[in-house]
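STRUCTURE REQUEST FORM
Protein name: PLP-dependent transferase
Source organism: Marivirga arenosa
Requested output: structure tokens
Priority: standard
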Amino acid sequence: MSENKVLNYIDDVVNNVPSDWLKLTTHRLDIYNEDLAKTEFLQHFNNLFEQGNSETSTLSELPTAYDYIRLGHPLSTVLEWSIAKLNGLKADQVISFASRTIPILAVLRKNLFDKKETILYYKGELPESLDLDTIQQTYNYTLKIQKIDSLDDIEKFSGSTIFFQATNDLGKVELNENIDFYINSHSQLGSVFMVNGAKNEAYIPAIQHVRRRETIAMTPQNSYSALQLIQGNKVASFDQTQFESNKKSVLDSIRKITASETKALLGSCGLSVQYAIMMGLIEHAMKQHPGKAIKIIVPPNCYGGTNDQARRVAAAVDNVDIMDLPVDGDNDMVQSTDKVLDEAAKLDAVPLIIAEIPTNPRVEVPDMEALRKALVKDRKTPNGENAIDPIFILDQTFCPNIQFLSEEGILSEVQVISYVSGSKFPSGGKCTAGYVTANRKAAHLMSSIEKHLKLCDNEATPLQTEILAEQLPSMNQRIEDAYKNTREFVNFIKETLPSAKINFVSEELAKEDFTPSVFSLDLPTKGNTDEEREEYKRALNQKLIDMMITEIPNESKYCVSYGQLKGCYWTIPATSTQGTTKEEDKDYIARVSVSPDLDLEKHKQVFADFVKSID
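Status: completed
Returned output:
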């Protein structure tokens, strides 16, 4: 295929790129086939390439590539397609990353389980944060490295060979049969990972899974810049002074919002931050409590990648295991916490608890005083020694305004690490960046977390930091306004369809500043058997969503979202690609996220019409 034809088409796409490809963090599920994911997008895109059609309107109509840009998005997919075409590879053999080091860790993770050795050859310089001792001692990975002057220096090897180079030319590689994987790294944009040869294609899903859970795809803006680089155009360097100013503004805002004097850290997304927390706390536990078991205590039905990531860490690192923390439905978070910490004490283990408050998707808040007592309770090991104090890792994405970290707060006696997914309220849905900070009692742990955030090259980008600097100052006001809209909508649904079960915070909890703007809706059902009732309910869920997105297309969206600046977002959590929850733990209920800016009366009207249609 003519290289010029590819380059000319890329140039046209860059000039005609739909604005949503650069701006949206979540994408529509009504034009998304989860089983096909980016395959369907690429089939249509490739057809447009063959036709020479790069019109903005046509590109805008392509199926959703991924439902959430952390996983991938149209521009990362186009970048991967372009590089594959230029190197005679298939599109799935190219995977873009925001991180320059995670692709290396991704190969090492698979080779750990496959019991294969790995050699990393490189030209130029490796990222400074690539700490081989930590990779071996904490991540349990083994890696040999060797600097070379020429690809001819690479010899045939029975294990895996990675060739890493820092370059401005992300688009081209010199394929060599002795090289299994290529990583083209760019200091500002991230990296592009390439799989060489059919024998290595089994690595592709494993590498994609790492991108899905421990980092993010190259961001839309950086993918756009990478496409320009392929065209031979220059990319402007970011303004270091402006970046430092934005970062200071963000850290000041987080300090005010959280009432914590601990310096916060900014990551490329919530899961990037969580991965740094996990690995940082595991390394700290290994050093402070050598030889003792480390227990990651996590709800089995939590959504997002939290559950999956925790289990992936436990599978890879010796002496780390999972303990379930049932929190939703008939389970009580306080009782579960007390019970599981008692069990950890009997094992003389290091307890790391991950919890969401409110819970997701059922929006439940525990008795905070009772939770405090369960966390600070004196426990003994079987030999009569004091049990190791728990570290409470709190996902505050659904209530980032609550000052859990305050010295006057209810959890001040507990070691609390708090993190938030920035794609929600912090940025108003404009970027994926997340942040983490701690109360005074846990402040000593932040240096370990920072070490792993940098090792994985998962820090927030300059543009992400700029967006947070713009949006964080208004966050608490947006949370308040969105809550008011949500409460009004919930009350209307209760009046209009009393038989529906709604999971939302009580008025009493709202007075304590638990003011989320998301609720779960369990619609009434009918049928003679459990299967019939479940089937009817799922169909009713879909009917409601279809009516909302059809009648209010500019505001109601079928996608995974929360904390957006405008509109209303509908999804069925258990069918979202974000979770890998066991079938028996899934909730097939509608989750509704309301923003501070929407036509609430129109949404009420459509819901009323829906109720009439099922009478």
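Reviewer notes: The first strand starts at residue 94 and ends at 97. The CA atoms of residues 337 and 374 lie 7 Å apart.
Form closed.
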